[in-house]
Design a protein that fits this description.
single chain; mainly alpha; two-stranded antiparallel ribbon; 5 helices; 2 strands
Length: about 140
């Protein structure tokens, strides 16, 4: 999975998310790890805001994303936004962080869970777990 590269997407992450090359490469690697967790956990997992932003950019390359999912996981990982979740249905991004830490060990800042105060109404930031990934 780590061997899968996508230079075009990494350049897009740099441009769209205002990242330097090492940060864009790390975000791409962390997004791939998140997608892996979605396939092995049996749970619908909420991405962190940074990973969600990278995932949105990857989804712009629909054919590449579909091939990546099939080659790496044997299944498609669906991005499921749901802003109408009730409080009992909201996904907990802390659960994603916990599972990632158990699976990968020490995690970098792309795995930081946002607080509501860090999210503005004009952003795609989801501190509330209102979107997730599942197979």
């Amino acid at each position: 999975m780590d061997a899968h590269e996508h230079p075009e997407l990494i350049a897009r992450l740099q441009r769209e998310l205002d990242l330097d090359l090492p940060s864009a490469q790390q975000l791409f690697a962390d997004m791939k790890r998140y997608l892996y967790l979605c396939t092995i956990s049996g749970e619908k997992l909420a991405p962190t805001p940074k990973i969600d932003a990278a995932w949105h950019e990857f989804l712009m390359y629909t054919r590449d994303y579909t091939c990546f999912c099939q080659q790496m996981f044997g299944t498609f990982v669906h991005h499921t936004p749901n802003p109408t979740l009730t409080p009992h249905e909201v996904l907990d991004p802390n659960r994603t962080f916990q599972l990632a830490q158990q699976t990968f060990g020490e995690l970098g800042p792309n795995w930081d869970v946002a607080s509501d105060a860090e999210c503005s109404p004009d952003s795609d930031c989801h501190a509330d777990g209102s979107c997730g990934g599942d197979v």
